[in-house]
Amino acid sequence: MKEHFIKKIKLQGPITIADYMSDCLLAPKYGYYNRNNVIGAKGDFITSPEISQIFGELVGLAFVDFWYKCNKPDSPILIDIGGGRGTMMKDALRAINNVDKILSKKIQPIFIEASSKLSEEQKLNVPKSVSFTDINDIPKGFTMLYANEFFDALPIHQFIKVNDKWHERLIDIDSKNDLRFIHDINPSPYEYILPEYLKNNVIIEFSPAIVNITTSIIKKVLEQRGAFLIIDYALDKKDLYGSFQAVKEHKYINPLLYPGECDLSTKVDFALIKNIAKELKAYVYGPIKQNIFLKNLGIDIRCEQLIKNNPNKKEEILNDYYRLISNDKMGSLFEAIIITSEEKLQPAGFQNA
Question: What pairs with residue 145 in β-bridges?
């Protein structure tokens, strides 16, 4: 896709990081998520559901618990936003079926997916599922919705402070037609809402897409009743120079090096999501670290059960377990937050959150 960006920049000038991410990830023909085998050991990155079946199982059981606490409402729907290959939904539905056959028959699995390639894989893994590209097409029903590593792929804008003024960070081409970062000559019109106290060269990220999607989903949850679980990379106070990153063959690389051939992501501002939920009068639990969330849901017990049933796979199961919960792996890099319509109803996994 490099030639695409060279032509685009020569025609219209430097582009925003948001435009770059959108084209790289979702262009109909050459976008990264429309390529084959991008997720998993043979791809460029791996998600928690692909590491261990326990992850999806625990989330499925957490929603069973929530459905019970809400007195088993009619028309339950389970929605996965950006569900990869459908592995997490498949694991969640299997766990639900193991504990409640009635709910299993009632529940309608739904994927919200922009990639036609991934949508095909989701249908193969979860045959009774239906797929939509637009959140607004979700049918009415008791809404149990989750997004695992979805928000980190949404387009973001970056602003960098130069000479005490905020400028938008852009992507241009150099004399050799290689992509490079620059900043807009003129200060950003959003400067008045960006903090004054931060030092020069600090980078702030903002995603209108996160605001719009979060708002739409929360309004739907409040209207239909239900819960919205988000698990993702968490933005840290130490991320003073932006979190825009690329992964290819499980290694971090320059995000401008192979456009359309690597996964692009940023860390998610959970504080922003929490503030949106509170403004909409929803009930919020978290964010908490992924390892705390999974331990609260009983990952240790489930791990022991798997080892007992599969003693020859003990080492593999334990390796996967530690990858999900270790502080130097995914355990503290990822956080979980849940937004619900129900007052004084604490969802499973968020004890004391």
Answer: 79, 228
| Residue type for position 280 | L
- 153 with 133: CB under 8 angstroms? no
Residue among 10, 95, 22 nearest 52 (CA): 95
- Can you spell out the DSSP letters for 89-136? HHHHHHHHHHH-HHHHHH-EEEEE-S-HHHHHHHHHHSTT-EEES-GG
Partnered with residue 157 across adjacent β-strands are 206
CA distances from 158 to 19, 243, 253 (A): 12, 10, 19
* In contact, 260 and 296? CB cutoff 8 Å: no
The rounded distance, in Å, linking the Cα atoms of 49 and 90 is 10
Residue 131: its pLDDT value, please?
95
From residue 272, give the alpha-carbon distance in Å to each of 234, 337, 338, 346. 11, 12, 13, 21
Residues 324 and 266: beta-carbon distance below 8 Å: no
Q: Does domain 31-155+211-340 have CATH number 3.40.50.12710?
A: yes
The DSSP output letter for 49 is: H
Domain residue ranges in the chain: 4-21+157-204, 31-155+211-340
Q: pTM for this structure?
A: 0.92
Q: What is the pLDDT of residues 197-237, one digit of tens each?
A: 778 888 999 999 999 999 999 999 999 999 999 999 998 87
For residue 108, what are the β-bridge partners?
77
The H or E element spanning position 220 is helix 208-224
And the tokens for 103? Answer: 């709910």
Assign 3-class secondary structure to 2-32: HHHHHHHHHHHCCEEHHHHHHHHHHCCCCCH
Task: Please state, in angstroms and rounded to a whole number, the distance separating the CA atoms of residues 35 and 229.
Answer: 27
Q: Which residues contact 111 (CB under 8 A, 6 or more apart)?
A: 79, 80, 81, 83, 86, 89, 119, 122, 126, 129, 130, 131, 132
Partnered with residue 263 across adjacent β-strands are 247
